[in-house]
Amino acid sequence: MKNISATSARRHWSNLLGQVQYHGQRFGIARSGQLAAAIIPFRDIEFLGDREDEADLARAREAIAGQEGRRRTTWAELKAYLDLD
């Protein structure tokens, strides 16, 4: 990842966006010498979202497996408990 200043990013925004979109470049944006943000391809965000979904699903499966042998609450009972009727 290449780091650039916020001023440079503002001046060269169109070119910067093209480098990210078409070439998959990643840029760290520095303000006052400290990294403040990043510009990354959207496919990276999709990838991270997919990994997060997989982790959530694994945790949910573990939680369900840990409930084996316990009485389950029905949807009707939950609605009544939460006063959703």
Describe this protein's structure:
With 85 residues, the chain is an alpha+beta fold. It folds into 2 domains: 2-40, YefM-like fold (3-Layer(aba) Sandwich); 43-81. It is built from 4 helices and 3 strands, in the order βααββαα. The protein has helices at residues 6-11, 13-23, 42-65, 75-81; strands spanning 2-5, 27-31, 34-39. The protein has a 3-stranded mixed beta sheet. Strand 2 and strand 3 form a beta hairpin. It is elongated.
Secondary-structure map:
Elements: E1 2-5, H1 6-11, H2 13-23, E2 27-31, E3 34-39, H3 42-65, H4 75-81
Parallel strand pairs: 1-2
Antiparallel strand pairs: 2-3
Characterize this entry briefly.
By secondary structure, the protein is an alpha+beta fold. The protein has helices spanning 6-11, 13-23, 42-65, 75-81, and strands at residues 2-5, 27-31, 34-39.
**Highest CATH level, the class of the largest domain:** Alpha Beta
Number of strands: 3
Estimated structural class: alpha+beta
The figure for the number of domains is: 2
Query: Which radius of gyration do the C-alpha atoms yield?
Result: 23 Å
Across the major sheet, the strand order is 1-2-3
Euclidean distance between termini CA atoms: 53 Å
The gross shape turns out to be: elongated
The SSE string, one letter per element, is EHHEEHH
Unreliable residue stretches: none
According to CATH, what is the topology of the largest domain? YefM-like fold
CATH architecture assignment name of the largest domain: 3-Layer(aba) Sandwich
Give the count of helical stretches: 4
- Biggest beta sheet attributes: 3 strands, mixed
Strand content: 15-25%
Average of per-residue pLDDT values: 93
What share of the residues lie within helices? 55-70%
